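Hi everyone, sorry if this is the wrong subforum. Our group has a chain we'd like a structural model of before ordering constructs, and none of us has done structure prediction before. Sequence below.
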Amino acid sequence: MQTTVPEQRSSERFGLALPITLEGEECASHDLSATGLLVEATAAPAVGSAIELTLEYEAQGQSFSLVCRGRVARVEQLQGSCNIGVRLDRPLYSEEPAALG
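Answer:
Right subforum, don't worry. Here is the predicted structure as tokens:
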């Protein structure tokens, strides 16, 4: 019998590959939401540890950097790398619909 795990995400996530710097290491994101992201790196901080990361993105032809802080929620070891689930201390964006008017 297969056991299903209830969905624990509090925000919609988007499959988005962005360059990220995690504690000085250049990494990449697999997906992100308002409250967290999944990062692939060669080394992982301990689960529960506080971290700082910088997201790099482009908007309207300009490059931007966004510094975020969070905690390591989970680590999945892969062959030669690891996936790190990060729960952000502050949301990246509001999920409230924009007011029309």
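For your construct planning: The two ends are 52 Å apart (CA to CA). The mean pLDDT is 82.
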